[in-house]
Amino acid sequence: MNLALWIAAGLLAAVALTGGVTKTFVPREKLAAAHGGGWTGEVGTAFVKTLGVLELLAAAGLVLTAALDIAPVLVPVTAVCWILLMVGAMITHGRRGESAFVVLNLAYLALAVFIAWGRFGPESFTG
């Protein structure tokens, strides 16, 4: 179970890192032209960059806090925050008729639910 939670956290951290780097460093106009990135053309640059930074922090919170044994409770807390972020992403893509991205975000949400459940419950780092 612990190994499965580490793998799930690593996968989700990789997703968060990729999205965070993209949203933080790629110009909004280029993101808006990409498949699934049209929503970025409808919001401000600061909003996109803020989401990018939050995703970079999520990547660190999902793995580094536990790996370095610095407040490992942040792993499930970060997972819960990721769940909220994915709900917003699903709503955004759903409104745009991008059902494939809704399903993808649902998969990320499910990973985060598994991590939050596992780390708050049976495989917490304090037990």
Give the helices and strands, then pairings.
Elements: H1 2-25, H2 28-33, H3 45-67, H4 74-95, H5 99-120
Helix pairs in contact: 1-3, 1-5, 3-4, 4-5
Number of helices: 5
Proportion of residues in helical segments? over 70%
SSE run: HHHHH
The chain-level mean pLDDT equals 95
Low-confidence stretches: none
Query: From the helix content, strand content and strand pairing, which structural class follows?
Result: mainly alpha
Largest sheet: none
Which percent range describes the beta-strand content? under 5%
Describe the structure.
This protein has 127 residues and is mainly alpha-helical. Helix 1 runs antiparallel to helix 3 and helix 4 runs antiparallel to helix 5. The model has no long low-confidence stretch (mean pLDDT 95).
List keywords for this structure.
127 residues, mainly alpha, 5 helices, 0% strand
Short description:
This protein has five helices and no strands.
